[in-house]
Specification:
By secondary structure, the chain is an alpha+beta fold. It has helices at about 10-45, 65-75, 80-90, 170-175, and strands spanning about 55, 60-65, 95-105, 125-130, 140, 150-155, 165-170, 185-190. Mean pLDDT is about 80; it is low at about 50-90.
Amino acid sequence: MTEAHTLPTRSDRLRAFVRLKLENRWLRLGLIAALVATALLSVSLATVPEPRERISLGKGLAGVDSELAAFETAEPSPLPSATRDVVDHTFRNASRIVGLGEASYYGDAFAGRSTASGEIFDPALMTAAHRTLPLGSRVRVTEPNSGRSVVVRINDRGPYHGRRVIDLSEAAARELGMLQRGTARVQLALLLA
């Protein structure tokens, strides 16, 4: 005996058609989602910042943007000397904010003692102690209330009292006008060159 083939009913054909239409729609939506995800990924990869270079400052390391390092190592500039002087002055004054907090100072009681860098502490020099900045780095210390600022060289470690961010020499504290108070709220900017 042979089996007779029956044709699908109209409702079966309609269900199959609807199922195919839905599958087609889901495939299109999946393809569109994949294209959007690919476009977003390519845009995000295109805007990734360049890696930072590390340069040695004294006994520590500090991050410097690659543009600044490239500028520092570039060949002599073809700019006219007047323009080159302005660019060089701007580059020398480039800095990065590294802290905001309370500053204190240490004076005559520590004069003649050895600092973390091996130097002998002299309260008359523009030096300072910081917990983590590289020894030998230069920092601009600014008191926002008065607008006064001073550039110091980090040659010691500290302060280890409370939440203080930097210990200045007596000469630097005098420049900031904080000898009477003993402490001041300051902003620290690491000079990049």
